[in-house]
Amino acid sequence: MALCSRIRSGISVFNKLAFAASQRSTLQRSLIAPSNSLVSRGYANVPGAKEDKVKVPLAMFGGSGNYASALYIAAVKANSVEKVESEILQFVEAVKNSTKVSQFISDLSVKKDIRVKVIEDIAGQSKFSDVTKNFLVLVAENGRLKNIETIAKRYRELAMAYKGEVKAIVTTVIPLPAEEEKALKETLQQMLGTGAKVHLEQKIDPSILGGLVLEFSQKVFDMSIKTRAQQMERILREPISIADI
Length: 245
Known about the structure:
F-type ATPases have 2 components, CF(1) - the catalytic core - and CF(0) - the membrane proton channel. CF(1) has five subunits: alpha(3), beta(3), gamma(1), delta(1), epsilon(1). CF(0) has three main subunits: a, b and c. 59% of the residues lie in helices and 11% in strands. It contains eleven helices and four strands. α4 (62-77) packs antiparallel against α8, α5 (81-97) crosses α6 (99-106) and α5 (81-97) packs antiparallel against α9. The chain starts with a helix and ends in an 8-residue tail after the last helix.
């Protein structure tokens, strides 16, 4: 199918250009490890468990990324990655569905001890695991509850990587027909190997004018008409040297 052929061709070119960038990426990953205080503080450890170093599968940036990485490390040590994922998403959904809770977590004027008490009550009533409960308390103590949705999204990305799942986002002007969506998903599955499970999410953005933008595994393949037009415009604006004629 033409769509899948364009994707394979675009990715092939991208991979040739990405080698040098991978060296910089390795350095970046070494600089963004979450603070030890975030990982160790307030988390329940498994009694008698060997303290093995946990490797975060994806590079996470910013404060929310660091919190998500710390939660992931604690969840792996407690062998509860999927349970924590379910609980943290449950908490975020509850916040979205309650105006009062949403206002509460956004109000920085609320005293820390009150924030912590409310979160402890919610976690207790919801029967959250110790890892999730202690993490939410830590986030409340640090005044980061307003960022919990972003933290949860980052954690979900880590949990998916842990389970061998890959989230791919395809942006188009109009929704892809079912047969093209299926073909794209199968193409990605073949590229990533049988060990990976692809979750394809569609986004609609008329501003790209046509073509598509594909994002997966922290890579972006921009095959949109908008980008091609911008590239052509830059070429046309470049001065022409007589020596090149």
